[in-house]
């Protein structure tokens, strides 16, 4: 364990009417405990999982490698300010780490290629080949295998994107092994019931406020997939009739 808690200073929020500060889960949780080497953030889209994960990265001085976007249709001035209202509690002081985002990984691969022009040795850490020459899923697993051997704090935003079920199982095995070794800590935002099956992991649900820990079998992800796999065709027809998931 490197990080034991995240404190949200909701009393200092500049507004409680705009995202992300309008999220009940942020307003009602002054302290978010991190009690296991592996913690999952789960919840529906728009509940604040990824936003909080990115804010924790900023607060821990972990870079998010992406090409800057200069214009936003939303023009929300509060969009990237949450980290300013967080404090974190370290066990033995800050440690290095990395942020993985499914939406920004391609940007990181392009940056790696640019660095490799001046220092080809950079690619040795990832099998000696440009990750851009691999399929998306292959490049993800090459990155995960190499990076998570290094001690540190790792934040992952929906890493299951572009991974087959078999590769997701490989990833969760890697996360579990690195966490049990004691030198790596993971905080993962995910929709994958395969990743959520990581043994002894802490699962925090963003679907209700205040934030609460839930058992694997009590997550919506497990229940929806279990219901679907028990009767796939019936689930599809029921979903279509109701306009949502069963």
List keywords for this structure.
alpha/beta, globular
Q: Share of helix among residues?
A: 25-40%
Topology, number of strands: 9
The parts where pLDDT drops under 50 for at least 5 residues are: none
Radius of gyration: 19 Å
Q: Helix and strand succession? A: EHEEHEEHHEHEHEEHH
**What characteristic shape results from the CA principal axes?**
globular
Please state the second-level CATH architecture of the domain at 3-65 and 75-99 and 151-214.
Answer: 3-Layer(aba) Sandwich
Oligomer: single chain
What is the count of helical runs? 8
Largest sheet: 6 strands, mixed
The CATH class of the domain at 3-65 and 75-99 and 151-214: Alpha Beta
Outline the structure in words:
By secondary structure, the chain is an alpha/beta fold. It has a domain at 3-65 and 75-99 and 151-214: P-loop containing nucleotide triphosphate hydrolases (Rossmann fold), CATH 3.40.50. The chain contains 8 helices and 9 strands. The chain has helices at residues 24-27, 49-59, 105-118, 136-147, 165-181, 193-196, 220-230, 232-242, and strands at residues 3-8, 31-33, 38-42, 86-90, 97-101, 152-157, 184-189, 202-205, 212-213. The strands form 2 sheets. It has a 6-stranded mixed β-sheet. A 3-stranded antiparallel β-sheet has the order 2-1-4, covered by helices on one side. Strand 8 and strand 9 form a beta hairpin. Helix 7 (220-230) packs across helix 8. The chain is globular. The relative contact order is 0.17. The mean pLDDT is 83.
């Amino acid at each position: 364990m490197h990080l034991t808690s995240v404190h949200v200073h909701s009393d200092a929020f500049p507004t409680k009417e705009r995202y992300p500060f309008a999220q009940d889960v942020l307003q009602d949780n002054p302290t978010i405990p991190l009690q296991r080497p592996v913690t999952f953030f789960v919840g529906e889209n728009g509940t604040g999982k990824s936003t909080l994960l990115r804010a924790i990265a900023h607060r821990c001085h972990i870079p998010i490698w992406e090409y800057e976007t200069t214009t936003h249709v939303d023009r929300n001035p509060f969009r990237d300010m949450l980290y300013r209202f967080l404090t974190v509690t370290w066990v033995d002081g800050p440690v290095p780490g990395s942020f993985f985002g499914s939406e920004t990984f391609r940007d990181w691969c392009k940056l790696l290629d640019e660095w490799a022009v001046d220092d080809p040795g950079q690619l040795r850490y990832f099998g000696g080949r440009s990750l851009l020459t691999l399929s998306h899923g292959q490049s993800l697993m090459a990155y995960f295998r190499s990076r998570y051997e290094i001690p540190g704090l790792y934040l992952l935003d929906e890493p299951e994107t572009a991974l087959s079920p078999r590769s997701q199982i490989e990833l969760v095995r890697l996360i579990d092994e690195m966490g049990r070794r004691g030198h790596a800590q993971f905080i993962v935002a995910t929709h994958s019931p395969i990743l959520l099956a990581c043994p002894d992991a802490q699962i925090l649900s963003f679907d209700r406020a205040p934030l609460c820990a839930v058992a694997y079998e009590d997550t919506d992800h497990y229940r929806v997939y279990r219901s679907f796999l028990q009767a796939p065709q019936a689930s599809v027809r029921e979903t279509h009739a109701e306009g949502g998931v069963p």
